[in-house]
Design brief:
The protein is of the alpha/beta class. The chain folds into 2 domains: 6-114, Arc Repressor Mutant, subunit A, CATH 1.10.10; 132-268 and 299-331, Vaccinia Virus protein VP39 (Rossmann fold, 3-Layer(aba) Sandwich). Helices cover 48% and strands 17% of the residues. Helix 4 packs across helix 5 (52-64) and helix 11 (153-162) crosses helix 12.
């Protein structure tokens, strides 16, 4: 594959997910199954004995790749799948080709770690959560935090144009990492201070970035597991940006952290429908389903219902950002 653009480089980095999804479809005979009779996601899940939601996201991923298409009865092989797969080799040959590629894949897992080995390169995949990775490796946490600081500059700049900070003196930036949005807001509003809550190693990296920006006197990084730990209080605004965590118990903590009349600002990718992943979150949702076969996606309606249940008053204005994130605001 010859790469020409930054987007193509990103596509290549994540292509292992596409490859695994396609190889699985071939080994399990999905295209031949659907060629006999289109099936909906529950039908595929039952026939191939795959957990229902995981199967749903797998089919969505294959659809995004142009390999299956949606028809009235469910899913069917696309024109591409018919011409490039079904009409070329038989099912048994394709299954063996996919199996051999899968077996070779183990040799290139964690290649950057093992490529300098003088002998045989063999690795074991260890799946760890974001928190586990950041907590166990301070250097990785530092590099990851600085990487997100660079990548999220455009998002931060868009939010400082959008958010009305009238009356906001204290900001709580939940899971704010580097504090990229907080730092952008601090530069724009001299009266503002911010508290970023994240895990310890991320906070250490964030403090370095704040120092680089000469803003460490107005931003605090508080190490905490905000799912389980109590949150500080007395804030005029809480920012919940790109966390991907939707829990009513957490919203109750955010309610308690806000002053009366304070605002919650939620910036997330919401699902377009029940059990339909947002296109920008499809890879992550599919990968999440491998860890939790019953993983759900959050729709706007479900999220708004949760906020109302806690006692928040939803503000009428919501804004769709160019990257597909939706900004929803609510007041205590």
């Amino acid at each position: 594959m010859k790469l020409a653009t930054t987007d193509q480089v990103f596509d290549c980095l994540s292509a292992y997910v596409d490859s695994a999804a396609l190889g699985t479809a071939i080994e399990l005979g999905l295209f031949w199954l659907l060629a006999e009779q289109p099936l909906d996601a529950p039908g595929v899940a039952q026939t191939l004995n795959i957990p229902a939601r995981r199967c749903q996201y797998w089919l969505q991923l294959l659809h995004s790749m142009g390999l299956v298409e949606q028809v009235p009865a469910g899913y069917a092989p696309s024109t591409l799948a018919r011409s490039a797969i079904l009409d070329t080799y038989n099912q048994q040959s394709w299954a063996l080709l996919a199996q051999e590629d899968r077996e070779k894949f183990s040799s290139v897992c964690d290649l950057a770690v093992h490529i300098q080995e003088p002998g045989s390169v063999k690795s074991a995949q260890v799946q760890r959560s974001y928190v586990e990775k950041m907590a166990s490796d301070p250097d990785r946490a530092r590099r990851f935090t600085r990487m997100l600081y660079e990548l999220h500059q455009s998002l931060a700049n868009r939010l400082i144009e959008l958010l009305d900070m009238t009356g906001v003196h204290r900001l709580l930036d939940l899971g704010g990492g580097s504090g990229v949005v907080s730092l952008a807001l601090l530069r724009q509003h001299p009266h503002l201070t911010s508290t970023v809550v994240d895990i310890e190693n991320v906070c250490i990296a964030g403090r370095e970035i704040a120092q680089d920006n000469s803003l460490s006197d107005r931003i605090t990084y508080q190490a905490a597991d905000f799912v389980h730990d109590e949150l500080p209080g007395g804030y005029d605004m809480v920012l919940h940006c790109d966390i991907g965590l939707f829990q009513e118990a957490l919203y109750r903590k955010l309610w308690a952290a806000l002053n009366r009349g304070g605002r919650l600002v939620m910036v997330e990718h919401f699902a377009p429908a029940e059990n339909v992943a947002h296109p920008a979150r499809l890879y992550w949702t599919f990968l999440d389903s491998l860890a939790d076969s019953d993983v759900t996606v959050m729709t706007v309606a479900k999220f708004q219902a949760q906020l109302s249940q806690v006692g928040f008053n939803l503000l009428p204005e919501s804004t769709l950002l160019p990257n597909g994130r939706l900004v929803i605001q609510a007041r205590k």
